[in-house]
Write a structure and sequence with these properties.
heterodimer, A: alpha/beta, 4-stranded antiparallel beta sheet, B: mainly alpha
């Protein structure tokens, strides 16, 4: 059963009966151990539809594991992972595939296929997952490449592109089927400030156009806060809080406070002063 | 003492885990190979990679194996006045044993190691995760063409090995050592029967399945290797272990098939 993307007006290949309402992803009591090490402990997280939620935290704090659990690549030891109304811990392999048809993913290392051209990389999901004829594939691939300012790169191989261009190709591939949820794993890792801004600009542009739910795992604090509607801190194996960036910077939770102070101390102070001023007014 | 039992138990559990994982992997690969839709372009690409690009090395190795067999066999047979059966000796050795085994070992070295490294690198660089997230079945997309490529190519390569070996034996036996050409080929006609050909067909098919299974599974589960499968060193270590495991498995199964079919 197809769905029409309300922003593009185009029918997508999604055939999951997505739950009505405002929740895209809901994690409940998610627990994951690797051997004797507990990585995630009773994680609860709710990600609203059509919004951008950024998951931050220290390196080795379980962010990647959390992302892989949401993608269905890692099974939690217990808990529920409900995405678009389906609990990934209870679905069959076939159903998982159907849920994933609503996903777009931009991996940290982009994960482009080295032996394929840019065009073939972006066309792959269309060729493998839809019955689109070659003309339609070409039209949709070129539309996405143009959206990413990648015109003229069709016949190039990933190795011939710069890091920023590879990220943009990865984003074009992630968005080629107009997904409902897009996951970004450290989208600006390895890029300089200029290239990072370029990726953020494209993110704004595509989200405004396609209206997808974005889940971003990132280290790029505080810059990433500008993109986000909600920020969740993963620390000590659990989500310490999920709130707006403004609330996050002023939160009283000691773990969040420590994170804010260590990553953006001066901004934290200035924001607090500002908050004080607002209260007086 | 407890530590010793702990380590033994740990290894046994890991072995059972790995065997189970590889069993499930084989079933998934065979199912996806057999089920439609069939995409012929990737299959032809794999037949080209495993088969066509191995032809030179197989013909070369086959010819020299036949030449050595003829040289060694002639000197032994002459002691018993049986030089006339040189042709059948060369042909039977090649068709029953050396052709399938040496072809399999050459394919493991040339294509098997490359397949394992390719899939291992895809695993390391998250390309396999990317396929899964795009709802593209990696068994269908990556493994099925390789299974078809191996199952088509290895029996054909074995056939080429046998033919070039028989021709190599002819060159040395008849060209250098003076065995009559008619006797060489007629003894083959007399002694090589259908059961020998059967063995020469069954073995390459079984070996092809074993090779492609082991090298693809090792690459696919690179991240679960106990010794650490990440990075260039992890890929290199896993490729080496896949080549060793595949080679040893071929020799063991060669014995088992021979014992069953003789």
């Amino acid at each position: 059963m197809g769905h029409t993307n309300e922003h593009t007006g185009r029918e997508t290949v999604n055939d999951v009966d997505t739950a009505e309402g405002s929740i895209a992803i809901r994690l409940k009591d998610v627990h994951k151990d690797y051997g004797t090490q507990t990585v995630l402990e009773d994680v609860d997280l709710t990600i609203p539809r059509g919004k951008t939620t950024v998951v931050v935290g220290e390196s080795g704090g379980g962010k990647s594991t959390l992302l892989k659990i949401m993608l269905g690549l890692v099974k939690p030891d217990r808990g529920q992972v409900e995405i678009l109304g389906r609990d990934l811990t209870r679905v069959s392999r076939r159903e998982l595939k159907k849920v994933r048809m609503n996903f777009g993913v931009l991996f940290q290392n982009v994960a482009l296929f080295d032996s394929m051209t840019v065009y073939d990389n972006v066309a792959l999901p269309l060729r493998e997952r839809t019955d689109s004829d070659p003309d339609e594939v070409r039209e949709r691939v070129e539309e996405k490449l143009a959206l990413m300012d990648l015109d003229g790169t069709n016949d190039k191989f990933p190795a011939q592109l710069s890091g920023g261009m590879r990220k943009r190709v990865g984003l074009a591939r992630a968005l080629v089927l107009d997904p409902k949820v897009v996951f970004f794993d450290e989208p600006t890792t390895g890029l300089d400030a200029h290239k990072s801004n370029e990726i953020y600009r494209l993110f704004y542009r595509t989200q405004a156009k396609l209206g997808y739910t974005a889940v971003i795992v990132s280290h790029d604090v505080p810059k990433i806060f500008k993109l986000s509607d909600f920020v969740a801190l993963l620390a000590d194996g659990t989500v310490q809080g999920c709130m707006s960036p403004e609330e996050f910077q002023l939160a009283e939770n000691p773990r969040i406070r420590k994170f804010v102070e260590t990553t953006m101390g001066t901004i934290y102070s200035s924001e607090k002063e500002e908050a004080g001023l607002y209260e007086k007014v | 003492m407890t530590q010793v039992f702990y380590r033994i138990g740990d290894r046994v559990l890991h072995l059972i885990d790995e065997l189970g994982r590889m069993g499930v992997f084989l079933i998934a690969c065979l199912a996806q190979t057999a089920l439609p839709p069939y995409k012929f372009a990737p299959m032809i690409k794999q037949v080209h990679f495993i088969g066509s690009r191995s032809v030179f090395v197989i013909v070369f190795t086959g010819a020299f194996t036949g030449m050595v067999l003829a040289l060694q066999g002639y000197n032994t047979l002459r002691e018993f006045g049986s030089e006339g059966v040189l042709g059948s000796m060369v042909a039977l050795s090649l068709i029953r044993e050396l052709g399938p085994v040496l072809t399999a070992l050459m394919v493991i070295g040339r294509a098997g190691s490359a397949i394992c490294a390719e899939i291992g690198i895809m695993r390391n660089s998250e390309q396999i995760d990317a396929l899964e997230c795009m709802a593209i079945d990696p068994y269908k997309f990556l493994m099925a063409p390789k299974f078809i490529g191996a199952l088509v190519s290895i029996p054909l390569l074995t056939f080429m090995f046998d033919v070039s070996g028989i021709f190599g034996g002819y060159l040395v036996g008849c060209g250098l050592l003076g065995v009559n050409a008619g006797t060489y080929f007629h003894s083959m006609y007399d002694h090589v029967d259908w059961s020998d050909i059967e063995m020469g067909v069954v073995k390459p098919l079984v070996f092809a399945l074993l090779i492609v299974w082991i090298v693809t599974a090792k690459g696919f589960y690179l991240h679960l290797e106990r010794s650490g499968g990440f990075g260039a060193e992890g890929v290199s270590r896993t490729t080496t272990s896949a080549v060793v495991l595949a080679s040893v498995t071929i020799l063991v199964w060669d014995y088992l098939i021979s014992a069953l079919m003789l």
